[in-house]
Structures are given as structure tokens and as C-alpha cells.
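Entry type: protein chain
Record version: 2
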Amino acid sequence: FQTEAEADANNTAGAVRLADNITPLADAQLRTDLAAGTASIFGITAERVGSYLKYDNVAEMKVSNPPIGSRIKLNRFRSGEDLLSGLEYVIQSAGGANEYIDHTLANGNIAKLMFLGSLNIKLAGAVGDAFGAGSFDETAIVTACLLQVSDITFPEGEFRIDGTISLGLRKTLRLLNGAVLRRTTDTSNTDPIVHFINQGSSVLGSGQNTSTISSLNDSPNGVMLLGASAALLIQNPQLNSNTVYFNNISGLRVSAANYGIWLKGWANANTISNIQGYRLGDDTILGGALFYDNGS
């Protein structure tokens, strides 16, 4: 209601006051006011920048209910984080959202992230500061995004992966220069960081010295698993009804495991190139540290 008197006249005695100084605007009026500069929507200031409405972060956008068809730009994913380019959304009618790539507004409409090609994982809320204050396990973000997209890029930064990223059919992870997937000692998990569970997937780094997958825990099952004590294990792809042919791994450093690359059983039709082993091996176990082949 525009005034308290109007609210009182409409039998709101049992209602709960949610906020003061809210400026209620119909969609048409909202568009008019924003075209002229700025407007206050549920106490949040939205700035008109060209054809976009601009908010500071996802939380502000979610409570301000911009009209369907609006295009949104954000400064950052969360309040207080660094500025981040590429956070651009379009508002669509109510539907499903995973709350990482797409977000449900207070009125039930959806803010859909607009991007082309590979998804920069930071646009879905990953931070890439594994040892910074307030760091958190980013496995859930990657897992949720892989359900919706097939290609994810990790820019420069140390991404904390205390769980396991499972790569299904035709999924791609790209590690740019300076990107690190790191398991921290905050978990006792010794499972692989990346697990290939299907066909046609890729993990592509930018070079041996620039892209790293590493665990700070003992990793008897390795940091990468195809198909279990290796940094990169290709286990018999026909075991347990798994078919893990035609995968591609290139341009990475693998470290902190008993074996670098273990070819075990029928390791067929997978391509491995430009891999550097670092801090690999166990002097109590027979076999090579970087390459170990007991397959057929």
C-alpha cells in the first residue's frame, strides 16, 4: 500500500511489517523511473546502465524483483568480494534454478546467467582462494554446474576441492594459467579430486607448470582417476560396468600420489599428453613413480 492509512483501511491489523521506506513501483513505472536514472526497489538501489539494471551482488538482485525481460549486471557475486566481470542475467518467468548459475527471485521469477562457451566457474560463486579467510569447499558448486553445462573453466586461483568432481558423458574442465584444484587438510578425504566415470570427457590444462591438480592429504588413490593408487589411473574400463573410453587429459601437473600414471587392465582409447609428475612415488611400493604399467 502507498500509505499506512490505506493499509489500515484494508484490514491489515494482523499483518507483519517487513520493512520501512519501501518504494512500491509497478513494472511500467519502474521501467520509467529507471530509464531516467535510478529507482529504489525494496530498499535496494538499481542503477540504469545502458540497457541494463545494475545491482551490487546476487543477494540484492534476488530481493529486488526486477521485471521479466530485464537485463541485469552485477558488480560481484557476494557482498564484499572482489569485482567480477561477466555477471550478466536476463529475468525470465518462474522455473527451475540451481542457485549457482541461475537464481530464484523473491517473486519466483528466474535470473538466468548469460554466457557463451565455457562457464567461468567464478560466475557461479566459486572464489578460488583455497587458503584465504572464509574459504570453503567448492566441490558442490562444480558438481551442480556440471549438471547444467558441459564445459567449465577455472581461471587463475586455488580452488578448494575437498570432495570429488565426477565427470560424466562429454564433460570438460579447463584449467587456465595459474589455476589449481587443491584438496586441503581441512578434510580427511583421500578420494581422487577428479573422477572420470563415462566417455568423451577432458581435463585440459595450460601447461605442466601452470595448471595443477594436487592434494595436501596422502592420496593412495590418486588425484585423478579413470575408471586406484595413482595420480592418474586408467583402470580396466570394463570393470563394474564402467565404460571410460575416449577421454582426454593434457597440459597438467599431477602430484602427491604413489603413482603418476597407472595403466591398469584394458586402458584403451584414452589420450594422455603433456603431463608432468611432481612429488610422486613411494619407496615401499615396487614400480615406477610417474608411469606404472601392469595392464594387458
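Comment: The chain is about 10% helix and 30% strand.
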